[in-house]
Amino acid sequence: MTSIQHPVLLEELRRITGPSHVLCDGDLSAYTQDWRKRTQGKALAVVRPASVEEVAASVKACAAAGVSLVPQGGNTGLAVGSVPDESGTQVVLSLQRMNAVRAIDTANLTLTVEAGCILQNLQDAAEKAGFLFPLSLAAEGSCTIGGNLATNAGGTQVVRYGNARDLCLGLEVVTAQGEIWHGLSGLRKDNTGYDLRDLFVGSEGTLGIITAATLKLYPQPAARLTAWAAVPSMDAAVTLLGLAHQHLGAGLSGFEVMGQFALSLVDKHFAQLRVPLFKEAPWCVLLENSDHESEAHARTQFEGLLETAFEQGCVSDAVVAENLAQAHQLWHIRENIPLAQAEEGLNIKHDISIAVSRIPEFVEATDALLRQHIEGVRLVNFGHLGDGNLHYNVQAPEGGDAKAFLRDREEEVNTLVYDSVARFDGSISAEHGVGSLKTDKLAIYKSPVALSMMHAIKGALDPRNIMNPGRIVRL
Ligand code: FAD
Ligand code: ZN
To answer: Which of 52, 242, 275, 417 is most deeply packed, by most CB within 10 A?
Structure first.
C-alpha cells in the first residue's frame, strides 16, 4: 500500500495539523530509522500535531482508515519500538511539537508538561523554579518525557528517586479510539479503582498516546559529591552498596558498577578521559551522595563510609572528586562505556535485572557459561548496581569479524543469557523496554498467566490493534 492509496486520510491529516506537518516525501530517516540503526522502516506519513485535540483528531482519522500509528518522541529508544515497520502503511505520530511546560505548582511540588518536552529542557525548567526533576540519562538532550514515561525509563538516579513511573502523578492520554482522558491529577493519594496511569506508563505506545504528564518535583540538594572506588569482587561491590545505604541513607543517589574490560575500552578509545584505578581491580564503583545539609557534611559522610569499607576489605582504593568538574569527569567515563563499546565494534546488548543479593552469583555463573560456549568471548559488564540492573553486553572475540559474530551467534548468546536470568528470577528488560526487539523473547520468558492478562488489556483498550502493533504483545 502506498500513500497514493490513502489520499483521503492524508488530506484529512493535513487539514488537522496543517499541510507542512504531514511529511511524506524526502529523507524521513530521522523518524524511520532506530537509534542503533538496527532497522530502517518506511512510513506512510509522519504527522506532527501541535495539541491534544490535533492528536485525538489524527488518531480518529487513522482509526477510520484502518491505519496503524507509531507514537514517537525523541526516537532514542533502544528496543526498536519507535519506528514504523517496512510496509509503508503506518503513520508515525511525532510529539515533538507538543513541548510546552504547562504549569508549575510549587506548593504541590509538581510540574505539568507536554509529552514532547525534551528531558533536559524539563530539568532546566524545574531548576529555574528552584527545584530538581531527578530523572537523568545519557540521552536526556534528545529524549522526551512522553518517551521516558512510555518506556518507564530508569537512568542514574533510580536508587534515590525511582524510575519514570515513580516520578509521575498524572497523565493526559489520547486513547486508541481518539478520545481524550484528562488524568492530569497532581494527587499523591487516589484509590478510586484501577490505576490507569500506571497502565499507560511503560506501555510503549501500544495502548494510547501520552500527550502530557504531571510530575513530581524535589528540593535541590545542597551538595552532590561523587566518589570512585576500586573493589576486589562483585561480592565486595554488593557489600559496599549495603554500607552506602547505611552511611548515606536517602543521600545515596547513584551507585554504578563498571567491569575492568568495559573500562579498558574507554581507556583504549578515549584515553583523554583518564580512567582511574581500573588496572588494579576487576570492578570499579561510582557513587554519588546528594546531601541536603552541606558539602562538608557530604564529605564527612563519604569519609566514614570509605573508612568502614576499607576496614571490611570491600574497597581497595578510592578517590573522592574535589569539585564539580572532577565529578563530571568521573560520570563522563561511565557514560562513555557504550560509545567505547561501539568504537570496538558491533556487540550484543542485554539490559537485565536480578535481585541485588544474587548478582555476584549470576555474574559468575553466566560469565562461565559464555566462556565455555564461546572461546575468547569478551564481556562488557556495567550498570546500575544500586537498582540490580546490569547492561550485560557481549563483544566478539578479539580480532574476530563482529558482523559475522552477531549474525551467527546472537541468538545463542541471547538464549544463554536470558535462560540464566530466568534461573535467577530476573527480568530480560530492566529499563529499555520490549519494543519489537524482545517481543519474541517476552513470549518465552514471561509467565503465561501474565502474558494472557497483557493480551486481555491490549485487546480491551485497542481492539482494532492500531496502536504500535506488534510491539510488546502480538494479538
Ligand atoms: P522514543 O524512542 O521516541 O520512543 C520509545 C517508545 O515509547 C516507543 O515504543 C514509542 O512508540 C513510545 N512513545 C514515545 N513517545 C510516546 C508518547 N508520547 N506516548 C506513547 N508512547 C510513546 N533508557 C533508560 O531507561 N535508562 C538509561 O540510562 C538510558 N540511557 C540511554 C542512553 C543513550 C545514549 C540512548 C540513546 C538511550 C538511552 N536509553 C536509556 C533509552 C532511551 O533513551 C529511553 O528509553 C527514552 O526514555 C526514550 O525516549 P524517547 O522520547 O526517545 O522515546
Ligand atoms: Zn542504563
So the answer is: 275
Of the candidates 441, 419, 444, the one whose C-alpha atom is nearest the C-alpha of residue 429 is 441
Give the ligand at the shortest distance from the Cα of 76. 1
What is the band of 1 on the pLDDT scale with cuts at 50, 70, 90? very low
Cα(253) to centroid of ligand 1, in Å? 22
Domain formed by 101-219, architecture: 2-Layer Sandwich (3.30)
Report the CATH number of the 345-423 domain.
3.30.70.2740
Distances in Å between the Cα of 218 and the Cα atoms of 70, 127, 371 are: 33, 10, 45
What architecture is the 3-94 domain classified under in CATH? 2-Layer Sandwich (3.30)
3.30.70.2190, 3.40.50.720, 3.30.200.40, 3.40.640.10: which CATH number matches 223-338? 3.30.70.2190
Instruction: Give CA–CA dist 367/361, Å, rounded.
Output: 10
Q: Judge if 223-338 and 345-423 fold alike in CATH terms.
A: yes
How remote is the CA of residue 390 from the centroid of ligand 2, in Å? Answer: 8
**Overall average pLDDT of the 379-386 stretch:** 97
Backbone φ, ψ for residue 296 (5° rounding): -60, -40
Do residues 373 and 361 lie in contact, with contact meaning Cβ atoms separated by under 8 Å?
no
Most ligand 1 atoms within 8 A of CB, residue of 37, 47, 55, 76 to mutate = 76
Domain 438-475 fold is Vanillyl-alcohol Oxidase; Chain A, domain 4 (1.10.45)
* Residue list, ligand 1 pocket, CB within 6 Å: 35, 70-78, 81-82, 95, 115, 137-139, 143-144, 146-148, 150-151, 153-155, 204-205, 209-210, 431-432, 435, 468, 471
What's the distance, CA 257 to chain centroid? 17
